TrEMBL record:
SUPFAM superfamilies to which the protein is assigned, alphabetical: Ribonuclease H-like (SSF53098)
Cited SMART domains: EXOIII (SM00479)
Gene Ontology molecular function: exonuclease activity; nucleic acid binding
Chain ranges of the Exonuclease domain: 101-278
Domain of life: Bacteria
Keyword annotations of the record: Exonuclease, Hydrolase, Nuclease
Name by which UniProt lists this protein: Exonuclease domain protein
Length: 281
């Protein structure tokens, strides 16, 4: 719907518009308020969607805002666009299309034991797929990694990741993973695509645990989960395999395997790009 804002309550994060001849109220969640409230002023024109649920705020029945399509500030000579979802989505497409090399990375980490005690999560499996701008796979690998700080892997970790004797036979020292990642970063300078923040945090922590020079910064990464949340206006996190099913249909089973997850991340990335290209030329 597209309406002119009649009034705004900045303290309680709601605004009103005239709808079907009546003053109707709409509220923003705290997260939405942090993002949009600076644009919400009396007289501004808002194009937005709502959820089919209401709650009382200050004795007023308010509809929950789902997301905004556009927010405009009318002027005497021209109208200023303060927020435009279509423009943002188009910018996302241009950014994602522009990476010459993409390193799809997934990491599995140790989990704390069932009993309390000192613990710090460490990388114990890495899977990655390096592709060029056309999606061609140039390098792919998967490896188990021995933890450095806490050598004993908890039963909880073994059970969750379904680790068996193969892990203890095939696992390598962290330095081997580090050297392979260093080669990829120095040779291709790829943008590293991950699902969520956990892998970024774990990789950063691994540099400190192993006392090595960081190979990446925060700008090295693209959080594909956050891109999805922004693109589809999602308030809750979306699982990687749920995102896969969004594009490709139901997937049978889900193993906690870093290499498989890296491949799925690549497929989800490419499907999102296709969605963007179909809607934003």
């Amino acid at each position: 719907m597209k309406r002119i804002i009649h009034s705004v309550n900045e303290t309680s994060n709601y605004f009103s518009c005239v709808f079907e001849g009546k003053l109707t109220y709409f509220y923003l969640t705290k997260a939405q308020a942090r993002k949009y409230m600076t644009y919400i002023n009396k007289g501004h024109v808002v194009d937005f969607e709502i959820y089919d649920n209401q709650k009382k705020i200050n004795r007023r029945l308010c509809w929950q805002v789902a997301y905004f399509n556009k927010i405009e500030k009318p002027g005497h000579q021209k109208t200023s666009v303060l927020f435009d979802l279509a423009d943002i989505r188009n910018q996302m497409k241009e950014v994602l299309e522009g990476f010459q090399y993409r390193l799809f990375l997934d990491l599995e980490m140790t989990m704390p034991p069932y009993y309390k005690g000192p613990f710090e999560a460490e990388i114990i499996q890495a899977g990655y797929v390096l592709s060029d701008i056309d999606g061609n796979i140039l390098v792919s690998d998967s490896m188990y990694i021995y933890p450095t700080k806490y050598k004993k892997i908890s039963r909880r970790t073994e059970k969750f990741l379904q680790l068996d004797e193969r892990y203890y036979v095939e696992a390598k020292d962290y330095t081997e993973f580090y050297d392979k990642l260093a080669y990829l970063v120095e040779t291709y300078d790829p943008r590293i695509i991950v699902w969520g923040k956990n892998d970024m945090i774990a990789l950063k922590a691994s540099y400190q645990i192993n006392q090595v020079k960081p190979l990446t910064t925060d700008h090295s990464f693209v959080n594909l989960l956050q891109i999805h949340k922004n693109y589809y206006n999602l308030s809750d996190d979306l699982g990687l395999f749920k995102a896969y099913e969004l594009y490709y249909g139901k997937i049978e089973g889900q193993l906690h395997d870093a290499y498989d997850d890296a491949l799925v991340t690549k497929k989800v990335y490419e499907a999102l790009l296709e969605e963007m290209r179909n809607n934003y030329v």
